Structures are given as structure tokens and as C-alpha cells.
């Protein structure tokens, strides 16, 4: 019989407590620190006054994201990620980059590259979705600063983006998985969506045993709703 994984007193579709603070870095053009449950991420936005070769001569700028986990963000120390070919790291960076490029109008940043650095300070599941939420908060911080200082007339944010993890654990659909739930899930998805319920990205699938397509759709729908809820909470605190 499968041992049931506890939910710390929250409902199956309830997220962990979330707190976010923007403007936490004195040096970065935009920044935010976000905590959801026991997962904590620091996100900063830097403006680099050049673009990659494929973007030269175009009317809009570029955006790229980097992701890393600090050595003691987990129970056991992990080595610093000096190997740039780390597959998981690149997979998460592509997720972050695609999400933020969709969310932002890059025309005001012609000949510039926005670099979003997401560093996991403490990990207990959901680090990539926490990075999406923290990265959005940092972009919001950047946008507010540029508007307030007169650099931009209006915010370049087109679509506020949220994210959440959902999974099938003990035959139940659960939202915002912590590490123990994620490790015991028979299927899981990381869902990135807009506040009005439009999908940007869904990343994940079954773990070992194929799942019915209807279950995938249920997970996806729960994730879209949950991503919107977490985004609304981030916006409330910004």
C-alpha cells in the first residue's frame, strides 16, 4: 500500500504560503526575492547594452535567463554548476527565457539584452516555477523604475506571468508540490500561464507509467488556475 504524503494541513489544490519583496538588490536594475513554502529564489534583472548576433539590426532587444542553485540550497551540498552543459539547468533556462520573452515588449530595449538571473537560495520543490514568479516580480520592479524615472512612458509588460507545479500523488491531483510530493508523484507538470488563464508553457509528464490523456488535461487545467492564483498573490504584494 502506498504511503500517503502529508500536505502540511493544506488542501489538495492549495498553494504553500507565498511572500515576495521587490527592490532587494542595490545594484541590479530590477530585483525580487520570493519564498513559497520552504523554496526561496532571488531574481535580478540586468541591462546589457548589446545583443547577440542573431538579434543585431532588429527593432527589438533580447532577453535571456540564467538559473542556478546555491551549494546548500538542498539538504546535502551540491557542487557549484561550473559545467555549462548541465541539462537540467539549460532546460529550466529555456523555460524561463521563453516565458519572459512572451511576457515583455522588447521594442523599448532595442540593442539591449535583459538578463534575468534566478538563484535558488533554498530548495523544497518547485524551484523553476518559483523562479518564474520571482523573475516576473523582478521584471515588474524594473518596469516601475524605468517608468518612474522617465526612461519609459509606460510599462513594457504585456502579459503578467505566473507558474505552478501540479502532480498526481496517490491518485490525487495536487498543486504546488514540495520535494516529498514531487519525488512521489506518478505524473507532474510545471505550468506557466497568464492571469486571464492563457497558457504559455507546460513542461512535464508521466513518471514511469503512462497516464490517461484525460488526467493530463485535468492536471493542465488545475495548473492554469493555480498559476493565475499565485500570480494574483504576487501582484497583491508588489
From TrEMBL:
InterPro entries: ExoRNase_PH_dom1, ExoRNase_PH_dom2, ExoRNase_PH_dom2_sf, PNPase/RNase_PH_dom_sf, Ribosomal_Su5_D2-typ_SF, RNase_PH, RNase_PH_bac-type. The keyword Heme does not apply. It comes from the Bacteria. GO terms for biological process: rRNA catabolic process; rRNA processing; tRNA processing. It catalyses: tRNA(n+1) + phosphate = tRNA(n) + a ribonucleoside 5'-diphosphate. GO terms for molecular function: 3'-5'-RNA exonuclease activity; tRNA binding; tRNA nucleotidyltransferase activity. Its EC number is 2.7.7.56. Belongs to the RNase PH family. This is Ribonuclease PH.
Amino acid at each position: 500500500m502506498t504511503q500517503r504524503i502529508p500536505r502540511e494541513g493544506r488542501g489538495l489544490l492549495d498553494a504553500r504560503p507565498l511572500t515576495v519583496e521587490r527592490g532587494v538588490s542595490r545594484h541590479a536594475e530590477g530585483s525580487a526575492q520570493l519564498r513559497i513554502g520552504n523554496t526561496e529564489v532571488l531574481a535580478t534583472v540586468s541591462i546589457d547594452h548589446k545583443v547577440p548576433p542573431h538579434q543585431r539590426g532588429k527593432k527589438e532587444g533580447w532577453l535571456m535567463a540564467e538559473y542556478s542553485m546555491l551549494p546548500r540550497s538542498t539538504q546535502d551540498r551540491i557542487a557549484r554548476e561550473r559545467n555549462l552543459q548541465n541539462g537540467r539547468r539549460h532546460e529550466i533556462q529555456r523555460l524561463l527565457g521563453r516565458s519572459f520573452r512572451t511576457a515583455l515588449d522588447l521594442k523599448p530595449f532595442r540593442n539591449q539584452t535583459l538578463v534575468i538571473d534566478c538563484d535558488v537560495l533554498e530548495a523544497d520543490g518547485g524551484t523553476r516555477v518559483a523562479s518564474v514568479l520571482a523573475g516576473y516580480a523582478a521584471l515588474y520592479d524594473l518596469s516601475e523604475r524605468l517608468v518612474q524615472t522617465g526612461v519609459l512612458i509606460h510599462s513594457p509588460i504585456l502579459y503578467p506571468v505566473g507558474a505552478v507545479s501540479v502532480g498526481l500523488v496517490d491518485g490525487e491531483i495536487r498543486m504546488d508540490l514540495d520535494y516529498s510530493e514531487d519525488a512521489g508523484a506518478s505524473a507532474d507538470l510545471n505550468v506557466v500561464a497568464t492571469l486571464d488563464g492563457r497558457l504559455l508553457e507546460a513542461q512535464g509528464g508521466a513518471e514511469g507509467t503512462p497516464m490517461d490523456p484525460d488526467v493530463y488535461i485535468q492536471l493542465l487545467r488545475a495548473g492554469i488556475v493555480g498559476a493565475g492564483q499565485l500570480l494574483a498573490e504576487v501582484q497583491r504584494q508588489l
